[in-house]
Design a protein that fits this description.
Elements: E1 3-9, E2 23-24, E3 27-28, H1 29-38, E4 45-50, H2 53-61, E5 66-68, H3 76-84, E6 91-95, H4 104-115, E7 120-127, H5 130-133, E8 140-143, E9 149-153, E10 174-184, H6 185-191, H7 198-203, H8 207-212, E11 218-221, H9 232-241
Parallel strand pairs: 1-4, 1-6, 4-5, 7-11
Antiparallel strand pairs: 2-3, 6-10, 7-10, 8-9, 8-10
């Protein structure tokens, strides 16, 4: 199967304008994401999908391939869907442009699920500390016995009745969602045509739109942590961490 990685990168981020071009120890964030993606072994090509000439100019200076997309897209999925129409591929991995430290092995894990027949694939990681479990900015996911996503939520799910909340992580295996997706090309195009769903509106989680419309999401479990840079605070914290 010919699998490509597309990195959606928009300049006008609401929470952190211009973040694809921020400097991280001498390299832009988008350059670091691209270089990590290129190390994945099961990917034939890596392309950036953007809507801004400033990002295009930067990518051109680094000889990084790109596709210019419409500025009106509301999600990375929609941006990937447009870009994929211009690239020959059987499947697409949507790698967020704010994941400069993504482990290439995580990309290959998604590719493996696609090679095994998954129509939509993503990653989850066990939660071991209560702070993450109850953080609404860390989406949680409940899995079926076969590894399919049953539901995503910003709340701690499932609720453990008659057990103090601070002890929940010691009595059940909880998973947080790692925001990287893979899709076969036909499914990606169908997803991009779906309207916003009621569950998506309630939780502000796009993947609920897919579940609500009957699509199945296959999950692989990873032990690798990811650190996305979504806000200026994340960027400041990165400097402290490093």
């Amino acid at each position: 199967m010919n699998i490509i990685t597309i990195i959606p990168a928009r300049y006008a981020s609401t929470r952190f304008p211009g973040k694809p071009l921020i400097d991280i120890e001498g390299k832009s964030m988008i350059q670091r994401v691209y270089e990590q993606a290129k190390q994945a072994r099961q990917i034939s090509e890596v392309v950036v999908a953007t809507d801004d000439q400033r990002i295009v100019d930067h990518l051109t200076s680094l000889n990084i391939p790109y596709v210019m997309t419409d500025a009106s897209h509301q999600s990375g999925t929609d941006r990937c869907a447009e870009a994929a129409m211009h690239i020959k591929a059987d499947a697409v991995i949507n790698l967020q442009g704010d994941e400069p430290f993504i482990d290439p092995g995580q990309i290959d894990a998604i590719a493996q699920l696609l090679n095994e027949g998954a129509r939509i694939a993503t990653l989850v990681k066990p939660i071991t500390i209560s702070e993450e479990l109850f953080n609404p900015n860390k989406p949680k996911v409940v899995l079926s016995s076969g590894g399919q996503a049953l539901y995503f939520s910003r709340s701690a799910i499932p609720h453990l009745r008659n057990i103090p909340e601070q002890d929940w992580v010691n009595h059940h295996t909880y998973f947080k969602h790692i925001g990287i997706y893979g899709y076969d090309k036909g499914t990606l195009q169908r997803l991009s045509k779906l309207g916003i769903s009621s569950l998506e509106q309630a939780e502000c989680l796009e993947q609920l739109r897919w579940l609500e419309n009957g699509f199945s999401i296959t999950c692989a479990i990873t032990d690798q942590e990811s650190y996305s840079i979504d806000t200026p605070e994340d960027y400041r914290n990165l400097a402290l961490r490093r």
